[in-house]
Specification:
The structure is a single chain. This protein has 440 residues and is mainly alpha-helical. Helix content is 66%, strand content 6%.
Length: 440
């Protein structure tokens, strides 16, 4: 039995890994993902935007003198009236007109651009003018030492998040809800696409071989159950190989590339944060949420748990759904006929995505727990919960239920497969499929 299944697995594996489409997608997909990850960092690091000159016409004679130039904006005051300034300052990026009633009417301000302005620039200018107006109004309150009072009450809270591990010598382990949320989204959609793509591949393969009468020849020497399992495991081996290559390329490239993009000061702060240092001892101006995100992403134990869980639940979810797709493929003659029968299969997959959105808001809710235990939804929902460091026993129980359900599903799908591969010319109803299940 093993040798026959092994031959079928080898045939399915060799047929797919030698295709140009497999090689191209295997190499290009991780490069594309790395590009999407690294591109924003490169753009922010090397964009080198030049400073934009903005002529300021201040009819109020109050605001313009308080505007501060930045690396992106250089404010230049002019005494020209706005009508003349708009004609004379064509070489500047824009002309900012501050009306004389700006203090009582905050909307009395206009920006005339000689080139399209970004929303970031508009927000920066509006924010700076707003702060100037607020400071002037505060000074008009005639409160002694008002700037000092305001400065003394301004407080920046740098809250750190740690896993509550009370075991001895465990230390404080930094975590990041932002990273957990991003990973949950990413892994859920990866499993969604993975199950649908490779599950449909099994179904298409069965339909093609059924129409070519290859299965009728093979059934004389190989049992239907062996054929079905060989085909499922063959496609699964291709999928796992592709995922393994992706992980090696992404993690390897990330290991060598990302550290080069992180300044030494930030890298040192991250290392201290991973060791449980407090914000006061980090000696850096970098945002604390960013430091925690980097610390979480570079935690080897955390990443190992994510990768292992991804492979395990991806394999379990694929085997379960592949058995169902194989049963559907054996029962029909064309992909069009398969649409009706595969609808009940795809509904739980789509439902999992909707539940995933709720899981991200509250990974410990009853809804999240039970849908991560139901085998038809557990692969996607559980992978949305794992980044939030849920109890290990929940992962093991969910995996055990998934494996047991696959065994039962494979047995039932095998009975449909055994009858379906020899049937031609008509699409069976759900009632007929139930009769096939009852055949001994």
């Amino acid at each position: 039995m093993k040798s026959k299944i092994g031959i079928i697995i080898g045939r399915e594996f060799n047929e797919r890994v030698r295709k140009k489409s497999f090689i191209i997608t295997t190499l290009l997909t991780p490069l594309l993902m790395l590009g999407l990850l690294v591109a924003p960092m490169l753009l922010s690091t090397y964009s080198g935007d030049e400073q934009k000159k903005i002529a300021v016409v201040d009819d109020s004679n109050i605001i313009g003198a308080h505007l501060q130039s930045t690396d992106e904006i250089n404010f230049i005051e002019t005494e020209l009236p706005i009508e003349i300034a708009r004609k004379e300052h064509l070489e500047e990026f824009a002309i900012l007109h501050i009306g004389k009633d700006i203090m009582s009417n905050p909307s009395d301000i206009r920006l005339y651009t000689n080139s399209t302005a970004s929303i970031t620039m508009e927000m920066n200018i509006a924010t700076q003018v707003k702060m100037v107006i607020e400071n002037i109004k505060l000074q008009q309150q005639d409160i002694e030492n008002l700037p000092a009072i305001i400065a003394s009450i301004q407080t920046e809270v740098n809250m750190q998040s740690f896993a509550n591990d009370t075991s001895e010598d465990s230390g404080d382990k930094a975590n990041s809800s932002i990273v957990a949320t991003v990973i949950a989204y990413l892994l859920s959609f990866i499993l969604y696409m993975f199950i649908l793509l490779y599950g449909s591949m099994v179904m298409q393969s069965v339909i093609e071989e059924k129409n070519s009468r290859v299965l009728e020849v093979m059934v004389s020497s190989v049992r239907p159950m062996e054929m079905m399992m060989g085909k499922i495991l063959g496609v699964a081996s291709v999928a796992l190989l592709q995922i393994a290559i992706w992980l090696v390329i992404i993690l390897g490239a990330g290991y060598f590339i990302i550290p080069e993009l992180i300044p030494d000061e930030v890298a040192m702060a991250v290392a201290m944060l991973q060791q449980g240092a407090s914000p006061e001892t980090l000696n850096t101006d970098t945002d604390m949420s960013l430091l925690q995100a980097i610390a979480t992403l570079t935690d080897v134990g955390y990443l190992a748990k994510i990768v292992v869980s991804l492979v395990v639940f991806m394999t379990g979810g694929f085997l379960l759904y592949a058995a169902l797709f194989a049963a559907v493929g054996s029962a029909v003659d064309t992909p069009q006929d398969a649409q009706q029968l595969q609808t009940p299969i795809t509904i739980p997959i789509i439902l999992s995505l909707f539940v995933m959105l709720s899981v991200i808001n509250d990974p410990g809710s009853d809804l999240a727990f039970w849908f991560s235990m139901i085998p038809l939804t557990s692969p996607i929902v559980m992978m949305a919960r794992i980044p939030y460091d849920i109890p290990t026993w929940e992962i093991l129980v969910s995996l055990g239920i998934l494996v047991a359900t696959f065994i039962a599903t494979a047995w039932a799908a095998g009975k449909i497969y055994r009858t379906g591969i020899l049937m031609h010319g008509s699409k069976p109803s759900f009632k007929e499929l139930w009769k096939w299940l009852r055949f001994k």
